[in-house]
């Protein structure tokens, strides 16, 4: 399969999330913030912690609605994580290819830098085809 799992991750990242209910949006914002670390650090949000956040924000909410709101919040966090990963992968790829192409254009042919730059381009192509 050409591009393998990378294409599926890109499609998932670019998909638009449904508009969340305000309680869910607040829970997602809280979980993705830098203070709570969300998906950015070691303290990853779990379904049970999301249910707790939603219940504490709105204690009168029925349990069935809390469950569906927590599921929706976790899906939105997954989409945000996929977007961040996609943009980082593409950004890093562009920087690496730009450096390699610049080296190839400016250095003489048989220098060690051109071998390194060619290897870098091959590595990037291999990554995206894996």
> Which oligomerization state do the chains in this entry correspond to?
single chain
Radius of gyration: 21 Å
Overall pLDDT metric: 78
Strand content: under 5%
Helix share, percent: over 70%
Instruction: Identify low-pLDDT runs.
Output: 34-38
Encode the helix/strand succession as letters: HHHHH
Our measurement of the CA-to-CA distance between the termini, rounded to an integer number of angstroms, reads 9 Å
Structure commentary:
- With about 130 residues, the protein is mostly helical.
- The protein has helices spanning about 5-15, 20-30, 45-55, 65-105, 110-130.
- The protein is rod-shaped, with a radius of gyration of 21 Å.
- Mean pLDDT is about 80; it is low at about 35-40.
Task: Please describe the structure with a list of short key phrases separated by commas or semicolons.
single chain
Task: Give a quick rundown of the structure.
The protein has helices at 5-14, 22-32, 47-57, 63-106, 112-129.
What order do the helices and strands come in, and which of them pair?
Elements (H helix, E strand, L loop, with lengths): L4 H10 L7 H11 L14 H11 L5 H44 L5 H18 L1
Helix pairs in contact: 1-4, 2-3, 2-4, 3-4, 4-5
């Amino acid at each position: 399969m050409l591009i393998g799992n990378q294409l599926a991750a890109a499609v998932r990242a670019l998909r638009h999330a449904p508009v969340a209910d305000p309680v869910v949006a607040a829970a997602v914002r809280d979980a993705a913030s830098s203070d709570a670390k969300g998906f950015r650090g070691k303290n990853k949000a779990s379904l049970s912690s999301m249910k707790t956040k939603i219940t504490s924000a709105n204690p009168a909410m029925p349990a069935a609605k809390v469950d569906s709101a927590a599921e929706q919040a976790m899906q939105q966090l997954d989409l945000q994580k996929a977007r961040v990963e996609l943009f980082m992968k593409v950004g890093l790829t562009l920087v690496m290819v730009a450096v390699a192409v610049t080296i190839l254009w400016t250095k003489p042919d048989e220098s060690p830098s051109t071998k390194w730059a060619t290897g870098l381009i091959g590595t990037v192509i291999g990554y995206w085809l894996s």
